[in-house]
Amino acid sequence: MKKLLSILVLSVILTPGLFAQVKKDTLFFTNGTIVVGILKKIKVGVVTFDPDWANDITVQLKRINTINAGREIYRVESTKKQVYFGVLMQDSIPHSVRIVNGVVQSSLGMEDIVNLYPYSDRILRRFSGDFGFGYNYTRSSSYGRLNFDGTLNYLAKNQETGISLSTVYSVTDSGMTRDREDASIKSNYYFSPTSFVSGAVGYQRNLELGINRRYQEGIGIGNKFITKKVAYAWARGGLVFNQEKSTEGKSSGNLTEFYTQLQFNFFKFTKPEVKFDITQTIYLGITDKGRFRSDGESNLSWEIVRNFKLTFQVYNNYDSKPPVSSSSNFDYGIVFGLSYFFY
Length: 343
What we know:
Layout: H1 2-23, E1 25-29, E2 34-43, E3 46-51, E4 57-60, E5 64-78, E6 83-90, E7 96-101, E8 104-109, E9 113-118, E10 127-138, E11 143-155, E12 159-172, E13 175-190, E14 195-206, E15 211-227, E16 231-246, E17 251-268, E18 274-285, E19 292-305, E20 308-319, E21 330-342
Antiparallel strand pairs: 1-2, 1-5, 2-3, 2-9, 3-4, 5-6, 5-9, 6-7, 7-8, 10-11, 10-21, 11-12, 12-13, 13-14, 14-15, 15-16, 16-17, 17-18, 18-19, 19-20, 20-21
């Protein structure tokens, strides 16, 4: 009885200390340094950590021996295209971490982690995105170009959904013209660590190509075939269904196309943070045989201060059979802007 009472007293004394430890995350460096704070994310080989004594710091994984982070469940993607869920605990193996999910424990090398972020039951914690604008003016032509763009992303255990918007307007003394608009909602459901089924709906407007409006619905299947520390790549393909209205007011009815898309993302998450991505989509007409279309974007961003970045975008659109015969079959543009991002 006395032994049991001693154990209970000891438990009461130790429990607050144990809970206090759980509330804080810890980085153990290879040189013996220990930093306490909050683990925010790991992205392509770089840890973002909020220490108790300073603002956020970024550290390359090769400098970390192990991590202890038991406050939250994390989603971890590895270079071997595996996905784990669990808390992080110190590993006895040097330069490794244990991912604990109930009774299941996995040991993973620090430099084998590609991405890590908190997987929370709180819905708002699963959102990330950016919003930006830009403007340029040409005196010789007496008009300006105004652009808005933004993305909003939602991540769940086996699903990711993204909303994107990109617009270009011309501003003159007489008013404003909506030259180009592109909006879409895409959702991927992963049935394996790298393979997914995809669905999307979209809206497009491009006066240069004679498109007053295009509604688009699509289904497909894809694979994330590159997951490296500095690069990601996706490929997907399937069918899209379009309903077009030309600038002359003519409606197309329902048009079916086969599409294939490639997307490459390149990162540098040491300061300053730089991102570069390329997306190209090709459409082959099924209903309108012989029609060939392509849409593409290249985006470069450079973080200048916390949560703000300079952006540079090049877009291209091609249509072998534009709905208005007198319209151009190719459009391109260069856009500069300033964006606010969050995660």
